[in-house]
Each structure stands twice: as C-alpha cells, then as structure tokens.
Amino acid sequence: xxxxxxxxxxxxxxxxxxPWPLVWAGxxxxxxxxxxxxxxxxxxxxxxxxxxxxxGSTEAKLSYLRWLGAMSEKLxxxxxxxxxxxxxxxxxxxxSRRAGLEPAxxxxxxxxxxxxxxxxxxxxGARGYMQVMPFWMRLIGDGDEGRLFHLQTNLRFGCVILRxxxxxxxxxxxxxxxxxNGSRGKDPYPKAVLAAKRQWDHTDKTPxxxxxxxxxxxxxx
Length: 221
Known about the structure:
Lysozyme
C-alpha cells in the first residue's frame, strides 16, 4: 500500500517563492533486520571521525575543489553563508563516497526530502536533511533521536540507509529510492530524486567505488 506522502511544513518561509519545488516527507518503514545486517549497519554509522577528505593525488584534490566550487554556486541561494555551505558540501561529499554513492544522488535526495533544511521534520516524524526516521537510532544507533539534527550524523545515517536499501534491492536504484520514501515500486518519488540529481551532476567527478546501480526511473509501477 502506498503511504501517502505529505508536504513538509515550510516554517519560517511565509509567502516567499522558493528556487526549488516543495519537498516530500520521508517515511522509511521499520522492518526486521537480521543480526548480521544490524551489526554491519551499526558499525557503518559508529565512526564519528570528522569528514575530512583524503586525496591520493594532487589531481584528485583539484577535482574535488572544482566540484566544491561548482556545487557552492548552485547552493548559494539556500545556504548564503560560505562557511556553512562549505561544511555541508564537504560532509555530503565525504559521507556519500564513504557509502559508495554519487554525491549528486545524495544532493538530489536532500533537495527532494528536506529542501536543504537542517531542522526539517515531516508529519511522519522523519528528521533533518535526509529525513531519517527516528527508529533508526534505536535499531543501529545510540537511541538519541536528537542527534539526527546533527549534520554529519544525519548524512551518515541517510547514506548508510540508502546504501542498505540498494544492497537489499541488488543495485536497483528505482526500488531502493522507493524504499527510502516508503513507496516502493511507485514512480513519483524515484523520478523526483533522479530529476533533482541531474541538477547536481558534475562532469569532473570521479565515480565512487561500488556505485554501479541501475537508474530505472522509467520502470512501471
């Protein structure tokens, strides 16, 4: 059954026009996890080292800096402060690549899920940039739901959860995105995320390891 997706309440924006469409509320479904899966996911989110990029070559560093500059310009209207924008993008880059995801995919998902609002809360109770449901803190975290408003914690959980769904769906991005939103097999949400992703694609990026997934947005519901 398709879970009805509600629009986030855009508190604080009043009647201002926004540069991107209204966002969808996230609502991952709580499902039983095998002990081995729970242990692996817990380990994946436990390391809280600062998200400092590590480059193997000068060209890799320059590629990252070009990506950072391009993404910074696109994000300026949502995050005017350079320092906050840089920290956000650095964390997106670090956590997405750590999970074997494209940064553009994660940025597209954030755009659709929260509109880049750090303290977004959906009517389903999902929190933060990637609209992570609080039950994940109980399943694989330390139980402190308030930490989902912390930048790195939210992106770490969101990326690990999406990676888990991709693995569960054997690399099918269409189905994995549906699981992330609680609407597996339906078209609107995956199509919205993949459309948003195209706005963040960067031709100079280096594909992350283990990121071979199928983008089947035209798959019938």
